[in-house]
Specification:
By secondary structure, the protein is mainly alpha-helical. It has a domain at about 275-490. The chain is built from 19 helices and 2 strands. It is globular, with a radius of gyration of 22 Å. The two termini are about 40 Å apart.
Length: about 500
């Protein structure tokens, strides 16, 4: 079994064993940490050994349902490597930060299922295998919100479930349709990504298949107008589920656009690119303004995340190597910052029992360490210099200007909206008068610092030494842009 397979199935197998075995919660937490740290260790080794100049690496192919051309086909390249690393790094740090807050077996078991599902989906090169892991990734979040959420969590769980089921169904129909067309043209079934890209579809068929995939990805990201589940779900979900949805699952939705739509339906993707660039730019503005009007911290950060994901969509659809590298880099840098920020929101709720801005205030005067880390991660999300987000956003803006000067100008100026509401939020939460809820606010504990310091160092490293990270992405991006006829700036 390859390293990739171990990283996929170790969390899933462990989750199944923990589900069957009735052991005490402290043992469950210890096993969770051991498994996730093993995955992180393997991922770091993978990153160090990864050859950026090679194409798809550690490829593993085993026929599964041979009669219908379904195979266990996985591999990693420079773009998928980033999500693999974030999945491996963030999950154990969640346990370190929250281990005193969560005492339910199902909480940690579901997080293990999610980790394996995300890892499998991002590494899959067979569409049916991708769909399987996509569902393995989604179902645990459904249970986490329903079992451990807040407020109207049962209603919101059903709303979230209906959205995701609809998106998954559309994607499954698209997968089956293109596989049937491949069978008619080549005489045999296949769900392999590299086989199916040779399928010839007419304009209408291509657009319908593209729409089936895009609906699933647009809901997961989400982009306008498939976002209406977002703010209520983030508000009601437990913090572990929110971190997974924001830092990992949403990024996987954006990555899937590049991996599957641009590979299978490049011509159609190119034709509809102006529409999605427009939707992305609108989302930048709409989600940013909506975030400014929020008084609930989790809803504010949910909309902030959607705004930056809209920027990632713009970066992909401008069909430029700067945009592709910048979007891939922003996927990673935003994952780190948003995971850390939502971890701190969870810490804040544990201390104050509130997410409302008017209840919070004056935290900097009573918990200076907390304030420093919170301000740092909040500013890193909007891309201040010396953070990874700054490098990524500059690359996307450069690509946008090369695509169209108007698109470049709008992209550059609308990023400022995020800075406005983030500064407003920082001033309300950290400064001002100490409230009844924050007067006894406890500063960061040792285990919380242990979780946050690595994320802070990673954010800084990505901003100060971007070449070390970008060199893993750029060769994959350049080879892809040459193949698809994108702008390579060479």
């Amino acid at each position: 079994m390859s390293v990739l397979s171990i990283m996929i199935f170790l969390p899933i197998a462990t989750a199944l064993i923990l589900f069957i075995a009735r052991i005490n919660i402290n043992t469950v937490k210890i096993i969770y940490m051991i498994v996730t740290f093993v995955v992180m260790y393997l991922a770091i080794g993978l990153y160090m050994d990864f050859d950026p100049n090679a194409s798809m690496q550690l490829v593993e192919f085993h026929p599964w349902i041979a009669e219908y051309g379904i195979a266990y086909h996985i591999g990693v390249d420079g773009v998928s490597l980033g999500i693999v690393m974030m999945n491996a790094i963030i999950m154990p740090l969640v346990a370190i930060a929250l281990y005193k807050q969560r005492d339910k077996h199902g909480y940690w078991i579901n997080l293990l299922f999610v980790q394996g599902g995300i890892m499998g989906a991002v590494l899959s090169l067979d569409l049916m295998l991708f769909y399987l892991f996509w569902e393995v990734m989604l179902l645990p979040i459904f249970f986490m919100i329903g079992l451990f959420g807040y407020g109207r969590n049962h209603f919101i769980t059903m709303k979230f479930n209906m959205y995701t089921i609809f998106g998954s169904l559309m994607m499954l129909i698209a997968i089956l349709y293109i596989a049937v067309q491949y069978k008619e043209q080549f005489g045999t079934y296949s769900f392999d990504l590299y086989d199916l890209k040779n399928t010839t579809l007419n304009t209408t068929e291509s657009l319908l298949v593209f729409s089936g995939f895009m609906i699933a990805f647009a809901i997961k990201i989400p982009i306008f107008p498939f976002h209406t589940w977002l703010s209520d779900t983030y508000r009601s979900a437990p913090i572990g589920a929110v971190i997974v949805m924001s830092a990992l699952m949403a990024k996987l939705g954006a990555y899937a656009i590049w991996r599957f739509l641009f590979t299978l339906l490049n011509e159609t993707s190119h034709e509809v690119a102006p529409y999605f660039i427009s939707i992305g730019l609108f989302g930048l503005i709409y989600f940013g303004i909506s975030a400014m009007s929020q008084i609930h911290l989790k809803r504010m950060f949910a909309l902030s995340s959607a705004s930056h994901l809209s920027l990632i969509v713009v970066g992909f659809f401008i069909y430029d190597v700067y945009g592709l590298v910048g979007s891939s880099y922003l996927i990673v840098s935003h994952a780190v910052s948003s995971a850390a920020l939502f971890l701190m929101v969870g810490m804040m709720y544990e201390r104050t029992k509130s997410h409302y801005l008017d209840v919070l205030g004056g935290i900097a005067s009573v918990a200076p360490r907390f304030a420093v880390f919170f301000a740092f991660f909040a500013l890193s999300i909007v891309g201040v210099p010396l953070t990874g987000g700054f490098v990524a956003e500059v690359l996307i803006v450069l690509g946008a200007f090369d695509y169209n000067i108007g698109v470049g100008f709008i992209t550059a100026t609308t990023i400022l909206i995020a800075m406005l509401f983030m500064f407003k939020m920082i001033s309300q939460v950290l400064y001002g008068k100490v409230t009844e809820a924050t007067k006894n606010f406890e500063d960061l504990r040792i285990h919380e610092l242990v979780a946050l310091v690595p994320l802070a160092l990673l954010v800084l490293a990505m901003g100060i030494f971007p070449n070390y990270f970008i060199k893993k992405i750029e060769p994959t991006a350049k080879s892809y842009t040459v193949e698809k006829g994108m702008n390579t700036h060479e």
